[in-house]
């Protein structure tokens, strides 16, 4: 009998904790993410979803636990149970962060640069590509998000949806191992939301590894490979989206979905 092939997670999160002063925001978050998987985090505001994303690539330093990407501990390590955190060096952490793309709620584009310049600056400054190489990569990624006709416009000349698509292209241009999306449509007018979700849906179909925090329940149900419902700093429920949407097991999940789905 042939031994079963064991897949190794791209990302492993174990007992992730984060406190701000006396306030504990994350209370022991653990999950695995496989390469090519789309995971969506849902839950009420203040449940800790954004903090999870920010702790994964150490935009916020965790208070405890471990994040492993490709078998390597991100940001340093904790020694023993409840032990001291030993941080990685600045250069090592910078190298690790390159593997994470991050798309923020608000687009964080440089207002004085064109779309192609905004996308090319990371490959030039961080990856060391030549101007020509970086701009060629930027043009490729802007094409990928359907912005071929807007490459030379500044952010002020673009709609909110177009600006967010530039931000997605910027993340893609760094060729990360995975992309973290922090409520990428929450700052958009309702009529612009779908164009951003369509790009994300295409990325999921292409096999991009993604973790998405969103309140867009239709997207979560249709696109996620796995859904996590968070509340009060915990993972309350985790599973296939259809299972959670049709038959949530936990009362907190049931109440949240009744509220957001108006049923």
Short structural description:
This protein has 263 residues and is of the alpha/beta class. It has helices at residues 49-56, 90-97, 115-125, 131-144, 160-173, 190-206, 217-223, 241-246, 251-261, and strands at 11-20, 23-33, 38-42, 64-69, 72-73, 76-78, 85-87, 100-103, 178-182, 210-213, 226-231, 234-239.
The biggest beta sheet is recorded as: 6 strands, mixed
Alpha-beta content class:
alpha/beta
Shape label: globular
Count the beta strands: 12
Count of DSSP H/I helices:
9
Ends apart, CA distance between termini? 50 Å
Q: Spell the H/E element sequence.
A: EEEHEEEEHEHHHEHEHEEHH
Q: Going across the major beta sheet, what is the strand order? A: 8-9-10-3-11-12
Keywords for this structure?
four-stranded antiparallel sheet; 9 helices; 263 residues; six-stranded mixed sheet; 12 strands; alpha/beta
How would you portray this structure in words?
By secondary structure, the chain is α/β, with parallel strands linked by helices. It contains nine helices and twelve strands. The protein has helices spanning 49-56, 90-97, 115-125, 131-144, 160-173, 190-206, 217-223, 241-246, 251-261; strands spanning 11-20, 23-33, 38-42, 64-69, 72-73, 76-78, 85-87, 100-103, 178-182, 210-213, 226-231, 234-239. The strands form three sheets. The chain has a six-stranded mixed beta sheet, sandwiched between helices. A hairpin with a 2-residue loop joins β11 (226-231) and β12. α3 (115-125) packs across α4 (131-144), α4 (131-144) crosses α5 (160-173) and α5 packs parallel to α6 (190-206). The longest helix has 17 residues, at 190-206. The protein is globular. It starts with 10 loop residues before the first strand and ends with a helix. The model has no long low-confidence stretch (mean pLDDT 91).
């Amino acid at each position: 009998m042939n031994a079963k092939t064991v897949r190794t997670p791209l990302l492993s999160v174990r007992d992730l904790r984060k406190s701000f002063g006396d306030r504990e925001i994350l209370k022991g978050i653990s999950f695995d993410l496989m390469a090519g998987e789309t995971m969506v985090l849902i839950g009420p505001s203040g449940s800790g979803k954004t903090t999870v994303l920010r702790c994964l690539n150490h935009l916020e330093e965790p208070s405890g636990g471990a994040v492993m990407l490709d078998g390597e501990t991100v940001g340093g390590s904790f020694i023993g149970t409840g032990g001291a955190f030993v941080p990685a060096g600045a250069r090592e952490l910078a190298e690790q962060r390159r593997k994470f793309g991050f798309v923020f709620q608000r687009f964080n584009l440089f207002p004085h640069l064109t779309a192609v310049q905004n996308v090319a600056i990371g490959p030039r400054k961080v990856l060391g590509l030549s101007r020509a190489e970086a701009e060629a990569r930027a043009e490729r990624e802007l094409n990928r998000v359907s912005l071929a006709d807007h490459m030379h416009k500044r952010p002020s000349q673009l709609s909110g949806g177009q600006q967010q698509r530039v931000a997605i292209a910027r993340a893609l241009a760094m060729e990360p191992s995975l992309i973290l999306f922090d409520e990428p449509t929450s700052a958009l007018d309702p009529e612009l939301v779908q164009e951003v979700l369509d790009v994300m849906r295409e990325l999921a179909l292409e096999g991009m590894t993604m973790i998405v925090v969103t309140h867009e329940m239709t997207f979560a149900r249709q696109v996620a490979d796995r859904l996590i419902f968070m509340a009060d700093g915990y993972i309350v429920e985790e599973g296939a989206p259809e299972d959670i949407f049709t038959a949530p097991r936990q009362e907190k999940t049931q109440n949240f979905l009744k509220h957001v789905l108006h049923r």
